[in-house]
Structure formats: structure tokens, C-alpha cells
Amino acid sequence: MVEKRDKKQLALMRKSGQIAAVTVKKLLENIQAGVSGTELNQIARDEISRLGGNESYKTVPGYKWAICLTINDQVVHGIPTERKIEAGDLVSVDLAVEYQGWHTDTAWSVLVRGGTRSSTGTPPGKGKREKSENEMFLRIGEEALWLGIEEAVSGNTVGDIGAAIQAKIEGANFHVVRSLVGHGVGKKLHEDPEVPGYGKKGTGLVLETGMTIAIEVIYAKGTSEVVLDKDGWTFVSADGSIAGLFEMTVVVGDKKAEVLTDWRKV
User: Quick check: helix, strand or coil at residue 219?
Assistant: First the structure.
């Protein structure tokens, strides 16, 4: 059963979402060449604690980190390591926050500035072209997220959300990862319903005002297939192509969804 939230519950989720948004913003400000995943993890840990929240990922059996960090061909669930970020890397950060028993979940992808591939032996001009292509890749993913969120209104279906995301991603000749999906969120980090980034309009669960869901755009440049890395957590694209991840927790509305984790507005 998919529950709708009452006013008190939504107030707590708004606070959880605000903590998540502030933390993501802080992380994005610090994602730069020379910074390691473990350093970013500590920034997140400190920020969540400072703001009065708890790390939702502690509720995932066996997971010891505050964030998931994925780079280039890594798709989701990447473990923060001592590997230092380099200029030209495509980096995605995913985190969830618990506040007084209520969870929110969010993710964002960026292209790290500060150099070109040509400085490491790539033929002149290719670095700039690759950077431009990767910027477009990320722009398409972000646009797909907002299109999916626009569908999160009462009377629409989960399939409407997925169809909007799929049309944008596949219309640009990229690929939705179908084995990984968005989800309900609230009392637990992962709840019903599943919210795929693909689907057919008018199908699936009918949305009602007050439902809370995490809408995710999980996609790769060259394939929809993923494989599990030897670390037992990280999924990578099967063909080694770059991957992107955009996610927001939203409240289904009468005429417009309420976004709880928008880092751009904090």
C-alpha cells in the first residue's frame, strides 16, 4: 500500500529535504580536481550532523558511508574512496537524509572543470569536443528529471513519469538503465511504489496528492546494461560508457509536484 502523508509528516519531510539539499549544495561546491571521495564523504557527514539530520544510508545493511559517489562509467552505489577526482571526470553524488524518522533522497551529476584531455595525450581538439558532448549528456539528464517531476500530479500515473523521462533520454540517443529505478520514500528510505525511468503513459499506479516519491533519472551514454563491480556495491555501465544520475524527492500535488530536495533553492 502506498501511503499519503499528513501535514505533520510532510513538515518533517520538508525539513529532511532541506538538510539533504543544503548538503548536496555543499558537496557540489567541493567537487573539484584533487578532492577525494573520502573527503567528500566527510563533508556530507559533517553537514548532515550540523543540520540536525542523520545519515539514511546507515539503514542500508553493510553500507558504511554517508554518500554514494560514482565517476564516469560508474552508474550508482559507488563507494567513496581515496581516488582523487580529476579534471574532465563526470561525477555523481547521491545521498539520503533521515530527520525524526523521515527520509528524503537526492542525487546530482556534474562535469569537473579545470583542464582538457589534450593535456594528457589526446589529440588536440578532441578534449573540447568530448567536454561539450558530456555537458550535453548531463543537460539532457537534468531536463528529463524536471519533465518527470512535471508528471507527478494527482490523477497521473507512475507510467506517465517514466514515459516522460524515457522520451527525453532516448530521444537524445542515450539509454535509460532499466534495472535500477526510483521509489517511494518516507518512513523508510525505499518504499513502494517503484518509479522506473521508462514506461507507458496511463499505466501503473495512479498518483494521489500527498504521496512522496523519489524520481530518478539513471542513464548511460552507450548502453542500458549494467554490471556489478568487484567491490560488491558499485554498478558500472556494461560497455564502459559514461553514466549520469539525477534525483529529487517530491510530494505529489493537485496541480504541481512539490520538490523537497532542490539544492538550487537553498
Answer: strand
Q: What is the pLDDT of residues 36-54, one digit of tens each?
A: 999 999 999 999 999 999 9
The H or E element containing residue 26 is helix 7-30
Structural domain spans, the chain: 7-265
Amino acid at 39: E
The whole-angstrom separation of Cα 146 and Cα 165 is: 9
DSSP codes, 147-192: HHHHT-BTT-BHHHHHHHHHHHHHHTT-EE-TTS-EEE-SSSSSEE
Mean pLDDT of the 179-189 span:
98
What is the C-alpha separation between 138 and 131, in angstroms, rounded?
11
Count other C-beta atoms under 10 Å from residue 156's C-beta.
21
Q: What does the pLDDT read at residue 181?
A: 98
Which helix (H) or strand (E) is 137 found in, with range? helix 126-150
Beta bridge partners of 153: 253
Per-residue DSSP letters for 27-63?
HHHH--TT-BHHHHHHHHHHHHHHTT-EEGGGGSTT-
CATH number of 7-265: 3.90.230.10
